Amino acid sequence: MTVKRRTQKKRKTTNELEKVLSEKNPSVKDILEKLQALHNELSNIEQGSDEKDKFLSVKNSLLSPTLMMNRYKAIKIYTACCLADIFRIFAPEAPFNTNEIMDVFEFFYKQLSNLTVLNGPHFKQYFYLLESLANVKCLCLISQLKDTDDLVNNFTKTIFQTIQPEQSKNIHVCLLDILEQVIEEAEHLPTECINIILDNYKQNENIAARTLAVNLCCNQPEKLQRYVCQYINSVILSTQVKENINEFIEAHNLILLMFNLSPEVLLSVIPQLQEELTLENVVVRETATDILGKMFCDTNSSLAKMYPQVWEAWLERSKDKKSSIRIKVINYIYDILENHRELASDINNIIKERSIDPDEKVRVETMKVISKLTPKTAQYISESLFKDCIGERCRDKKHIVRLEAAKSLCRIYDMHYNVIFQEKVTDEGTSLFEKFGWIPNTILKLIYTDDKDILVMVEQLLMEYLIPEQLNNTVRVDRIINIVSSLDERGYLGFISLLNRQKTWSTFIEKFLKLCETYNGGIMDNISEIDPVKEQLNQINQSLSNHFPDPKKTYEKIRTFINLNDRRSYELIRNTYNPKLSYEKILNSYKEILKRPVLAPLVEELKILLHKVSLLIINKDVTSPLIKRIKEPLIYWRNKLYLSEWTKGFSNIGEQASQKLITYITENMPVLYEDNIKLLSNLKDNDLVTNTLEALAQIVKLNPNKLPKDDKDITQQLYTISVNGTPEQAKHSTYLLTYVDNKDEILKKLIKNLSDEISVDSVNIVTRLTSLSVLAKYANALFEENDNGTKLVSFIIKDVLLKNKNSTFDEDQDDWVEYTNVDDECKIKCTGLKLMLKRIVAAKDTPELAYTLAQPFIKLCRRLITNEGEIVPTNNTSIIQRYHLRLKAGQCLLSLAKHPVFETMITMNDYLSLTLIIQDPCAEIRESFSKKLLFLIYNRKIHIRYLPILFLVAHEPEKDLRDTIKNSIIRLTKSLKKNKSTVALMETLFLHFVHILAHHSDINNYFNDMITLEQKFEILNIFSKYLEFYGDIVISRENISFIFYLAAQIKIYRDIYSKTSREIYLISDLAQYIIREKYVSADWALLTYPGTFDKFPKSLYSKLAADEGEKNVSQLYIPSEYIEKEKNEKEKNLAHSRKRTGSHKRSKSKASSVNEDVDDMETSKKSSVSSRGRRSRTVSKSEEIVEEEEDEEEDNENEEKSNEKEDKTDTTESDTKEEEKERNTDDADNAETDNDVDNKNKSSTVSAMDEDEDATTENLSIKEDDISTEEVSAPTSPTSTTKTKKRKRKENLSSPAISTRITRSKSRKL
């Protein structure tokens, strides 16, 4: 390079420096002066000048040790500057030989180290040397030298030590230039040099040195690539030999740093990283996976495109055998998707595969990727991936996975909601609805999982994401409608169950707060009351905390809350579930609680609690917008533009969502309408009449003063509806008329209008009978005037029930028809029965009248049941009518049994007739009746002695129905055991169940002398299944001895309804055999029951004399051949099982197949069994059947509604939890329905027309009565000439067993 310099006109060429150096002891001053003069002269000579020859002697003088090794820095720096000038002047030729050059270069780097002193006296000269070396590039002569390793190392080391952040940019540029010359011209770079460069690359103390290293790598990538790769290889080798993990990780961190700052230098390293991905060493694989992941997700990276084979190798690490490595891959895929959308296909595949990873931690991390998605990135994730993978993980067997999956989906839904439901329907919104509209449905169905953590999660997600805070009532209600509209049947029931829980929890919390106020932080006026109140609080605390994810922690936090005695908190919590407050006030109370400083340590628990009770979804502010939306449905549903694939099998409720929500509020939360009475009073809107009337009826029941009684227009409208409206409307309007002013005058007029000249051909006859049934109950005195009640009942019996308008019917039409679709004649008959029932119930407080009315009605109901619904003399009632009539008759008996006064009138024949209904050939009858009975028992509205009837579903062919009842009884059993007074109730009900079996029509065949031994075996097998069904539900390790004891003790009693009692002894022996087989198969210890139990129900059993009983016990009533046959079959099956599976374990009894739900049943304990009062069996001799009935129609309807929902929810309880063996994950969607879902059945609001049933709750205890001992058999059908298919249930039954008949019968069409 030629450097142009100003040429002086006059130059001094004498070599005075040589003269001074030749002196014996030259002075420093002289030497320095001569050097300065020489430097000034040389600096002005241009490169390649012709005058360079006269400096030949000077250059040799400059190499003198006197100069280069002088102890004075000034002499050395001027010498260095002069030597630098010599290199410039003689360029491009070398002014020295190789050895001299080596010495000069060493001399140079030593001088450069003084550049660190910026304020030194000779800094200018040091910078001159630096600049000269950079510009002249004399260091390129290194390529001509040998053994330059030390020189290269020293230059590298010196330069990195010299450079400082406070130095000027020119110094940094020159140092970089010099170092590049050294690196570029060196034939070989020693390891120390590379280490120095890389050490400075990764350090953060000297930023200037780090920048120098980075710039060097950026400018010399081709030179450094090989050496960096060698460095990585040496580190890997060191890791494998010495296990120096820290150095290995540090080296890879350097690679990442280089990738971000100087990626070109890594061209040889990237393939090396690919090799590392396949090594056995876990740390190596994990580190390489981590580093490459960071490289791939870099915004400016094109690594995946440049190295597709490396990208594929990295993707394969998502299948690595080490879960931590799979997680490493997952942790980077979101950033890769965010920055490199072209890789979305590969990202989708990873998410799909890892969402079913065997390791829950990997699945959790995969779900977290989804939670990070933004609207821009979510569009690159396929719809099937969201539904089939993420949606399925919401039912994962691990809670933490379900939590992350559900949370991520809710966040996605909330993020896209405003786009999906815009004011106008768009293609984008429609597409996003298909992609994400199913999310609320999936989330709400999670409550069917029996997991309290999941329930807490669903409540949180509902409040925070699905229906978040929104002060605009219309916007909030529209969002609720949109969510409800996109639900399938189970999703909707799940949503409703959450709302129902709020009612249950609010009642519970109110009781808790009242106790807190009474306790007053432990300060009470009456000291003796402190301990009882404290004990109650502890019990509630325990119960409350059990519903939280961490019960122990919650228990302590609640105890802290109790001791705080913060009255303001009590008030705020009450506000959150106060139905009379607006949404805004509820929300403000909710927020204030969580912000109160005194409650700061309890925020987490309080938030969970508030989610359970706060009326932030359904409150009084939603009623008006909902009613508006009934008239003006949202466009998405009105035009059926959003039709969801996931609601197949359940009609998309769409525009009906508002109607459904209004109906729910009407039935369950009518108090919300109180501020909208004027709106409800508008009965001119046909779309809302039914709901409006029902809501008004509910409100008036709670507060009669709310009805605008003096409004003549409303009264007239109610009167008109009672006469001409639909039966449903008439029921509510007539009830409301019982509260208006001048009601006696109006009701008399109405009764006369409805009753006069009534006939089966009267206009609106069903409506008229419905209105009259309400009046019979709520205005009974007016109803009975002028013997009107008797006349109406006579009309119902003679003209309705005992006559058929149509003399013929289609015998082939035997498929079930829902009540709403049956012909008018059937509705008239059923409504007539309702009227009779309500008239009887109205007389319940007058025992004599009640007895007079109820006895013939009970007889009528039994006759309808035993005659299969046929009581018309001509035997021409249609099959469909008979279906509904015998079902209604059975339901009427259950309704009467709710009241003690009528329950005592139900004889054993009446009781046994109910067993015919639960085993009716029609599946819908069995289902409807069994669910009503279950509903009444669950809600403690009927005597517990009716529960054993439900065990007859053991042979139920409809698996869903059988499992629903079974699981419900299991939950009831657990509930009863929590109460000390009912702890052994289910065990003692065994005696009632045995009695039912002993009077079952099928057992009579056993004692027929004409049947063979094999036929007897078949009958025993049938009854074995009944007993096994009971055992699966009730028997546990703790109570098996007690139940076995009861089964044996039966043989020292006699059946007071049987002459021989042989049937009950047969069942006793069979039960003992079944129980023995059960404990053997379950490997339980059958210990002798240590106590005694002599409280057998006196209404069923009487004790034998001691000697007679002892003799009876020793007699075996089941054939020994049967036991031997069963034993041989078990051994045969066991051998077959061992041969097929190689297993040496198998069940030793049919009874060993116990449902898993029973395994965790609580320990059973025996309890005292109270006696049951006397009940009369006197039957009225009246020829005319002048009965009424109570129906409690609205109670029936509530039961039907709740059972309809229970059917959908409880059927899932029976589903087996299938385990994905290959992926080790579960679908918990078929898990047992959460107990709280059934709170809907337990706490269903009774309709406004239902009366209080306070007296029925006492019926849980088993009573005794000294009933007469005449023999009672299963009811039989009288001989009839009907052409319909009769069910033969006579005592002398010789046909196949009833279970076979049910199986042959038509099952419900799905």
UniProtKB/TrEMBL annotation:
UniProt keyword list: Cell cycle, Cell division, Mitosis, Nucleus
Q: State where composition is biased (Acidic residues).
A: 1185-1198, 1227-1236
Q: Where is this region: Disordered?
A: 1127-1310
Q: Which GO terms describe its cellular component?
A: chromatin; nucleus
Q: Does the keyword Hydrolase apply?
A: no
Query: InterPro entries given for it?
Result: ARM-like (IPR011989), ARM-type_fold (IPR016024), Pds5 (IPR039776)
- One of the GO biological process terms: cell division
For bias type Basic residues, the affected ranges are 1135-1149
Q: Which Pfam families match?
A: PDS5 (PF20168)
Polar residues biased stretches: 1293-1302
Q: Which residue windows does the record flag with biased composition (Basic and acidic residues)?
A: 1199-1226
Location(s) in or outside the cell: Nucleus
Q: What is this protein called?
A: ARM repeat-containing protein
